[in-house]
Every structure is written in structure tokens, then in C-alpha cells.
Design brief:
The protein has 191 residues and is α+β, with helices and mostly antiparallel strands. It has one domain: Roll (Structural Genomics Hypothetical 15.5 Kd Protein In mrcA-pckA Intergenic Region, Chain A). 36% of the residues lie in helices and 9% in strands. It contains 7 helices and 5 strands; from the N terminus they run H-H-H-H-H-E-E-E-H-E-E-H. The longest helix has 15 residues. The relative contact order is 0.17. InterPro entries: Ribosomal_uS4, Ribosomal_uS4_bac-type, Ribosomal_uS4_CS, Ribosomal_uS4_N, S4_RNA-bd, S4_RNA-bd_sf.
Amino acid sequence: MGENIWGRPKSPVNRRQYGPGQHGQRRKGKMSDFGTQLRAKQKLKGYYGDISEKQFRKTYEEAARRRGDTSENLVGLLESRLDAIVYRAKFVPTIWAARQFVNHGHVNVNGVRTNIGSYRCKAGDVIEVRQKSKQLTVLIEATQLAERDVPDYIEADHSKMVATFQRVPGLGDVPYPVVMEPNLVVEFYSR
């Protein structure tokens, strides 16, 4: 992507702005409209970790089907995924760790064990780390990281390891480290 899309301090993009290798510093050509839209889609899809193209496309189709602004709906649907909420609540350091954390069965949603990363949470759902998993070092280290803050649409209590999904966020509520353009994603898929 050429950008530090997760805002991590150890990203190689923080050291140099050009690509790796012998030809990394060469001039790049002007990007086409299709290229700009594709890059915006890949950036948004890549930000949420291991989402397959098929999953992302279905999420877009669901966002287009709903009433209202499609780009706002798309961001709302992506942010209401269980793995995204676990990541936003600062239970784990990265989005991939969030997906693995959920897949390994460390999370309960409303008291029921859930191991599907793409599970769509509703407003008011309570996401809780299971009792057996509360002493994991990954969990303890991640809650103490000062790297990012818990957004206002998630209420997290790190002493009890419980998070509540307050509401479905809009594009302005989501703390992306770089500029995301879901309107270009909508243009890409509506071709």
C-alpha cells in the first residue's frame, strides 16, 4: 500500500517512503481511476486483516441493500464484526491476533462462547473474555499498550475484561490511522 495503515510504530514505511529493492526509488506513473479505487478497496479490506474477497464483497452487498449511505453502512458492518470489536477494545495487539483469539474460543458474546471472527454483533452486545483466558500474557500486555485508545462506541472494562458494543459507528467515529475512502470502494464495486 505504501502507507502504514495500522499505525504501528515498527512499520517499515515509517523509515522510508519508497518501495524496497533496486527499483524502489524510481518514479511512479500516474494512477488511473480504477487503480485508485482498487487501492482504496485493498486498503480498507487489508485493514481488517484476514477478510477474504468473497466475505468483503458480501459485506458490501449487505451495505448496499440497507437504507442510507452505502459507505457509512460498509464501515458500520465491518466495525461490528466480533474480531474488530475485540481489537478495538484493546484485548489484543493486532487485528490478526484478534481473529486468532476469537477462533481459539477465548471470547463469549452475551454469555455464549463464540469462535467465529466474522460474527456480527448488535448494539448492546456484551463481549467478555472467558474466565480461563483472563491470565493470558498476550491479553495483559495488550491492555497496557498506550499505542491506541478504545473508541467511544465501545465501552471496555479492562479489570473485568468485558467490553460492550454501544452502537454501530459511522465513518467519522472510527479511529483509522490513515485516511480511508469507502466511497471509492462503493465506486469500485458499482462498476
